[in-house]
Amino acid sequence: MKLIKNKEFLQQIAHQIDVLNTLGGGIALPQVKVDKLEKGAIIRVFIPSVSPEAFHIALNQNQLTVMAAHRFDEESETAMPLFSQQFTLPPQIDLSRIDAVFENHELQVRLPYHTSVYKTRNIDIDIKD
């Protein structure tokens, strides 16, 4: 039994199978996980065979939308949606510091808390007579 060793070919064929499955009424099944950490949270999205260029992230006030779409070629304006999910962010998230990174075939949207949320601050007590 011969194994296909061409990694690029395998990625392309996997992507084509995803596209055909979606066109045939199936769906691309992403894995979405939210990790809550001490200084923030991370939304992790893993969709097999989807490139980082396919993802789009939009923030409208406290509504964060993460989506992925397949374009048949780079110049095409037509896109086939693969995934879309909306998250309502709590007030402790610092919206100005949200960032995203694509690493190990996984999109990570990092949501830091406001620094005042996790810093301890002493409050002086005024004494009035």
Topology of helices and strands:
Elements: H1 7-23, E1 31-36, E2 40-46, E3 55-60, E4 63-71, E5 79-88, E6 99-103, E7 106-112, H2 115-118
Protein name: Hsp20 family protein
InterPro entries: A-crystallin/Hsp20_dom, HSP20-like_chaperone
Organism: Adhaeribacter swui
Q: Can you tell me about this structure?
A:
With 129 residues, the protein is of the alpha+beta class. The model has no long low-confidence stretch (mean pLDDT 81). The longest helix has 17 residues. The chain has a domain of 89 residues: Sandwich (Immunoglobulin-like), CATH 2.60.40. The chain is built from two helices and seven strands, in the order αβββββββα. Strands 1-2-7-6 form a four-stranded antiparallel β-sheet, with no helix packed on it. A three-stranded antiparallel β-sheet has the order 3-4-5, with no helix packed on it. The protein starts with 6 loop residues before the first helix and ends in an 11-residue tail after the last helix.
Alpha-beta content class: alpha+beta
CATH architecture of one domain: Sandwich
Helix content: 10-25%
- Main-sheet strand order equals 1-2-7-6
**What distance separates the N and C termini?**
91 Å
- What's the overall average pLDDT, rounded? 81
Query: From N to C, what is the helix and strand string?
Result: HEEEEEEEH
Query: What's the overall geometry?
Result: elongated
Q: State the CATH class of one domain.
A: Mainly Beta
Instruction: Work out the strand percent.
Output: 35-45%
Secondary structure tally: strands: 7
Stated plainly, the CATH topology of one domain is called Immunoglobulin-like
Uncertain segments:
none
Tally of helical segments: 2
Based on CA atoms alone, the radius of gyration comes out at 21 Å
Largest sheet: 4 strands, antiparallel
